[in-house]
Design brief:
Two copies of one chain form a homodimer. Chain A folds into two domains: about 60 residues, Arc Repressor Mutant, subunit A, CATH 1.10.10.10; about 140 residues, Up-down Bundle (Four Helix Bundle (Hemerythrin (Met), subunit A)). The first copy, chain A, is mainly alpha-helical. The N terminus of chain A is likely disordered. Chain A contains nine helices and three strands; from the N terminus they run αβααββαααααα. In chain A, strand 2 and strand 3 form a beta hairpin. Chain A is globular. Chains A and B meet through helix 3, helix 4 and helix 7 of A and helix 3, helix 4 and helix 7 of B. The structure holds a DNA duplex.
Chain lengths: ~230, ~230
Amino acid sequence: MNAEHKSKSLDGESGDKTLSGLTTEALREAIIQGEIPPGEKLNEPQLAERFQVSRGPLREAIRRLVGLKLIEHVPHVGARVVTLDLPKVMELYEVREALEGKAAALAAQNMTDEQITDLGRLLDHHRVHFEQNQGEYLQEDGDDDFHYKIIQSCGNALLSHQLCHELYHLIRMFRFQTSRLKSRSDHALKEHTQLFYAIEQRDSQLAEILIRRHINRAKESIRNALLNNET
Amino acid sequence: MNAEHKSKSLDGESGDKTLSGLTTEALREAIIQGEIPPGEKLNEPQLAERFQVSRGPLREAIRRLVGLKLIEHVPHVGARVVTLDLPKVMELYEVREALEGKAAALAAQNMTDEQITDLGRLLDHHRVHFEQNQGEYLQEDGDDDFHYKIIQSCGNALLSHQLCHELYHLIRMFRFQTSRLKSRSDHALKEHTQLFYAIEQRDSQLAEILIRRHINRAKESIRNALLNNET
DNA sequence: GCCTTTATTATTGTCAACAATATCAATTTA
DNA sequence: TAAATTGATATTGTTGACAATAATAAAGGC
């Protein structure tokens, strides 16, 4: 087991020191960061050797990543890393819109005052970074991601799990392979600020509308960028 | 492998004749139908004997059902069937509301005329049953479930998968253990009819609103029923 | 009698070998 | 020469045994 833990463990399994658990994380990161490219067939003996485990825990890790939709498995044929083409990314953003809409609505109802203050502080931090770095939006992973913080505080564990443990890794994978795309820095900060005010005022309908528009705009921006890059 | 295939395979794995696949289905049904009760600790050697497979495929099946949220797994301790208490069911219905709202909106845009005609036929079938059976709503599983049919036709495969392959089994499990609760027969048929018209008219916003209200009412009805049954 | 510590047992996690299936390469046929 | 068939190889699926950990039972101390 020589794989290194490269990022914060975001999947609630940080206590899992079994080989299967550690292999799951290492394989997940290798996929997200493109070390194992999209579409690639997963060869069990090779991967087991790479991660220095036997095929048992490696198979368990693969099964677990099938559950996260990072891997597709065909009986008797084997497992393959998913490919995130434009149609799939569009689907992903549609699901995200629905779930994050609900999450924001619930967050506006359920977040504690302290959590809201924390969120405001994070937003301030992003604003300072934006101003000091020639308009570059600070896109952070995990605990310091604006969306993530809202989702984690929405008060619906199943919803948080769907977004943060199942879809989030797909989003990370997509971000990694499209890191050259310019993000909507100027708009993102404004929209996050609007959203923050809605949550602060406990206006759950407005919070839902705002975040859904925000994600829809991101979706359209991605669509345009990918279509333009294809021509 | 003596387990019998008791219901239509709803999870797109009907071609999976591996022991792991067959065990997954058998174990899933045993959980949904309460043969293995909520909260129960899963004992690998016993279950392997029960399903007449070795522990390997049984462990794979457990992992796969962890991905469907029917089982919770703790490293080194083991796996346990989830319990669906009131708070969790409420969470489940909130997630369902968000996803089915989006699915209905997409269905109103994307369903073919033929699919809409089929949906209307299913609704007629349910209406006839309602009238001939003293107001009892026909609650069917799988392909003949009204909601399921809309979701399957919404045109977003990821969304369909989330609802039909991940959350649907939890809902089935809940329905099974609460089968004595009276369903909202009279209202359900009316609301389904309203929803059908919205989709037929391609009014995606109305479709979303209607199905979200419908699911929210079901959620409140469940809350009341469970709270009354507790007193 | 209750609490703590130690020992035993059972279960979970892993490994390596064998069985089953798909894929690839070589040969044959049209 | 291309397509079909056959055989060999590699990979996936499964099994049973061993290792590691947790749970349970027994022993000791207050």
